[in-house]
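Appendix B, example 12.
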Amino acid sequence: MTSTEMRRSLGVFIMLLLFAADGFAQNSNDYRRVSLSLYGGATLGYPDDVNQIFGSNYNTFTETTYNFGGGIQYAISPFWSAELGYRYNTIKGVGEEGFETVIHSASIKNTFNFNRLYRRNQISEWLNPYLIVGFEQDFFNYKLDDEEVSGNESAILGGLGVAFSITNSVDVFSQFEVKMASNGLDNERRGFPFDQVGMATGGIRINFGRGDAKPLNLSPAVKRLTDDEYDNFIQSTEEFKAASQEIEAQRAKLTEIEEQFNESEKNSQEKIERLEEFTRLLEARIDTLEYRLDNLEVSVEESAQERDQVLKSEVPAGHYVQVFAATSYEAANRVKEIFHELLGNEFENPEEIVFVIERGRFYEVLVGTFAQFEDAQRAHEIALNRLSDAFIITFPRPLHLVDEYRGTAIVHD
């Protein structure tokens, strides 16, 4: 990457971070929770064949190089902040191993603020040591002469730092981080299962938020009270406690009244439901009695002349709903007229589809003919609301019922 390309990439990155951080900060009015950090520094080299606890370890010797980056941080609590960031890093070999590895890293970091340990001291308002724990996803490109290798792997990151608050809007910080990265940064996969990268950086953090709001990780100043102020505070506390107790007592009374009202409403609702159920049963009983009375009147007035009906035609094949059967033609005819009215709103031709058939000594009231079984089901559901023993029947009948239905025909209206 040339210096011009590097400056252009860094400029675009900073503009994007500023835009995103300002957008996140719009909902943080009480405290400054959102901040933007920019940093740069040295990536330590590996100058000799000695393992370094805090520093860099590779399979080949390297020189000290530079790195820079930034991130958006959000304060989840005064103790804990989370950060999404980006880092540009280079690793360079020395001597004959003069390779160069360029690393672009996307990171997720957790920052734990140690100023909470001495929050009652005013120094906690401007001095904040912190611990860093996180992960990075490295996208690296190794070059040596004509040889070039690219890859991407995950890394574990840890470190320590200290921040100094200049104003509510600006902090400066210095930190040292060590990460366990891919073992292929120097294109030599041997020894340890990882390459250790040590980085010392410094930078600036811009805190976004309302003008008079403080960053969330800063403790409020400790106010030292005089004896009179302390006595007034204790008296106000006792008055507040008494008022709170009175409020709780009134709330308890209100809760008791609400419970009594709910219980009364529940009892009333149960009584209403029982009354409605009794009413439905009574209406069903009245309908049954009225139907039986109509049948009785028809049977008393039956006429021998109307009983001898001439066959009109044979029953066509299809689906029917049988709603009634009796030895009295007058009773069957009465039910037929009832279903003319009952089906008037559901079918266009109730006078044609409701009729009486004569089978042996019985007169049966049928609704049909339906070519589709679904139409017969719809008529059956309506019939059940009036006569609970209605059922669906299909002609022609099965072979074992042929003799029983032989001669079945529609009776004249």
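Helices lie at 3-25, 227-300, 304-307, 329-342, 350-353, 373-384, 402-405. The two ends are 101 Å apart (CA to CA).
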